[in-house]
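Here is one chain, start to finish.
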Amino acid sequence: MTGNQDLGDSRPIRETDATYTRRRLLVAGVAAAVPLAIWAKVAAGSPPDSGSSASSTSNPTQPDLVTVPSSTVAGDSNALDEPGFGPITQDLKLGMVSDDVARLQERLTELNFDPGPIDGYFGESTLRSAWAFEKLVLGTPRTEATGVVTPAEWDVLRAPVTIQPRRSSNGQANATEIYLPEQVLAVFHNDQPVLVSHMASGKLDENGDPAEWCELVTVDTDETGTPLEEPVERDICGRSKTPGGVFEFTRRVEGIRNGALGSMWNPVYFNYGIAVHGAINVPAAPTSHGCVRLPMHIADYFQDLVSNGDRVLVWNGETPPEQVTEEEMLPVFDYANPDATTTTTSTTSTTAPPTTAPPTTTPPASTTPPTTSAPAPATTTTTTVPPTTSTTAPPSTTVAPSG
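Its structure:
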């Protein structure tokens, strides 16, 4: 197939698989045992709608971030003295191997910031987990998150922490909350967190708007995921928009889903072709065509945490999900590339409407009046850009963004 493979590449390879042997050699002998942490409620409220500090109250319609004030940490000094939760004396960062890293991984796991294997090696999975903690709990703006756990941040991490949903269900339902400014996703079961993860949504341009892309792609399904009789090759453009709003999970695919814009691992769809799915490339900045990317090791079990019909709330940083209009919740459907060249390929010729196909396959065509053979060049040009995509391209005939 053609298309951009950076949406997760075409292989369901876990990040830990590629470095497993090296990692085990590095962490041989590292102890990972850490006693259970003390659980307590730190503060009521919920994350802000932007990457501002945790104490921001610029938007009075939104509750504040669940945070860990210094007074709370100082008041819980007994928790800091628990065996295994002593202070650290150096920063923990990518590439390190130590007992302290193992304790960090254990604590992040207890708080549902899944860092991957608890092996004492500070790898990419642990880095993304640390990003999520920085952004959601410490209130660090996305662009300033480093993934480095300082001794001061460790003191916050080892103190009692509770993550709460921004929209409570009064303990009655499961929901997924997606915070675009922070690039964090959280899954709650009856208001209790079961997963908090770094993510990557639609790429933004220099103005902070959804970035435009143009690619030659092969489409094998419509926007509902229904397979087409024959793949269709199209030269299309789109905008990498991940809309805010209130949605619900509608369908899923187990394993690899080869879409027009790349491959996705275990996708769960909630807005036309926009899905939460696993990807190998989940950087610090938004980078997808509109989907919500998760690290591969988390996507392995994400489908077990959510059900079709579960509510999905997406904060865009400007308008609360409930106030986003239906029009604003729509993704930007793909459109024909205005700079596309009219070249003919075997793929496009198979997608030509039935009315144009018979003249090219009927042997007696040479004996028919010249009017049936003369338009041949026109027929080839129409097959490169099917009529359904050269018009206004309503949602029923366009490709919903994915990846």
